[in-house]
Amino acid sequence: MLSWSPCSLPQLSAMNVRTFLVNRFVWTLLAGTALGQTCQTTTLQSAAPGDGSEVVLASYSYCGGTLTATVVDLGYSSGIPGTDYELWSIAAPVWVDGIDTLLNISYQAVDIAGFYTQQLNKAVEASGDAPPTLPSPSKPYAVPEGLAGDIDTFLAVVNTSQAGLALTRMFQNINPGVSGDFPGTVVAARSGPSYEQTDPDYEYNWVRDSSLTMDVVETLYAAASEPRVKQQYEDILFQYMAARAMEQNDPNLATGLGEPKTYLIQFYLNNTIFSGPWGRPQNDGPATAAITLINFANAYEAAGGSLQDVKLKMYDSSANSSAPVQRDLLFVATNWTSSSFDLWEEESSDHFYTRLVQRRALVLGATFATRMGDLNTANKLSSALSEISATFNDFWDSGRQILLYEYGPILRGKTSYLDIAVILGVIHGYADDGFFAYTNDQVQSTALRLATAFIDVYPIANKTSDASGLTLGIPIGRYPEDVYDGTGTQQNGGNPWYLCTAAMAQFMYGNSAAYSENGSITVTNTSKPFFDYFTPNAGLESGQTYTKTSQEFTRAISGLNGWGDTFMRTVKFYTPSNGRLAEEFNRNDGAPQGAADLTWSYASILTASFSRAKVNNQTTYIRDLANLGITPNL
Ligand code: NOJ
Ligand code: NOJ
After folding, report:
1. What pLDDT sits at residue 185?
2. 247, 342, 350, 597: which is the annotated catalytic residue?
């Protein structure tokens, strides 16, 4: 989060080219300006104003993506000899679309409780070099081909494989049994006051983590053929639904339904909203909760459940306050325009991830509401859907050839604009309707630039093969500039995460599966670098379409599968021998770090394994894994 300096600071408002983002610009005081560039500085006033104005703009430039301004203001003590004025200089990186107008200077002198302002309405011209673009991706350090046997074993359908362990450990964190938790809640990790490892305190039920975990339970539920385990999954999903409804009805919702998490351990507070200071709201939560529960409703009906039950127990919040789906959907439809904190809980802005999961909730929700006979809600969802869909162009940065993870204020220092959140957005938010699909060329370009960015960030990326000489993929973290080390923050403290590395594997499998289903690959200028890096042996050319029968197609699929397995092999390589997955693995030595037994780490292994099974033609994989059932606690 950006923090404000406690002393008096001049503040300039800048108008963005897009009207809805006016005034979201936040100033930071910086030491220097863009060096070595030809900057054009506009000077308006070089001396103290003779007319007694309290604050005036002296000069400004917008150069190389940095806005610099010098301000003369009436100071408490004299700064310009012979006058009562001080000279202030400020500079701030301007986020990606730049600015076109300076609106005013506002100066809040907190020491004397004064507020000075000058109206400007001055046009700003950009000068100097363009804001830095990302370097071109490096040459691939390996050319892995095809799915590999070691990963078959890693994810095999047996209790003792990593997939089997992930299943067991994930269920161990659902209804975790710490002092009578509320049924249907999920502890984010086995780290907190009730556990051996107390730091960090993840002993809460996070709305996001729970919904993503329960979506895996839903997939297992839909696939299971063994009646006893199917019933167990169904019971858990009904409990989850009740828990979600309880959260919605909590009297202490400070910011609506986007509250990030609930208490787990104090029995009198079970599943009540966490009321301490936190980055709130996080408006992805109502969307992913709705997605999971709609998927559940559909699977429940497919398993013989009645439409009436679905409507009354799951959907119709206006008739039954313990039916949560309609309420979350309407919240998404009416609140998607509000900025909220991102999935990493760090910055309030407009986030690609949040938008895309909200969009998917609206897609699924509009169909679902129609099926429930609620045309009024269906119409609201459909019109929100058209509006939200029209905003995604903002995220594409053609200079950098990436989808921005957020559009608006950015986290301090996060200037690569790269974040696995974009890929996770596609994984959790692709609505199967061609809108930001896995194979979207902008998504592919982003995935390439994001993945390769970590090569120079993490020392362990230098290790490119395992003991058997098999290629390791690039270790993937949240974003290159991350400083969160799993318990606190430190310089160069960010680490690769299991769930982020598994997400890259899933993304590769997802591409492979989509092309095989579609029957052809079309390459554009935007996606060419992605194919050059990940499938160099296919020799794909921009502007060409390759059909299933071509050698290029076969080779491209082989490259995608090969990289999918190398990313998974990185997860495998840094998984300790007991199979327990923390949140992160250390950037220097690969040792597990941060929250122990992170539920989302396990869920991410499972969803990646489901995608891999698809490309491996293992049509009964999910069913067979689901039928293993819930193993009693290890
Ligand atoms: C906890 C948040 O959940 C995490 O995402 C963040 O990076 C750290 N706090 C540091 O702010
Ligand atoms: C921190 C992560 O940044 C956030 O995404 C997650 O919800 C919480 N930890 C809980 O796992």
Report:
1. 95
2. 342
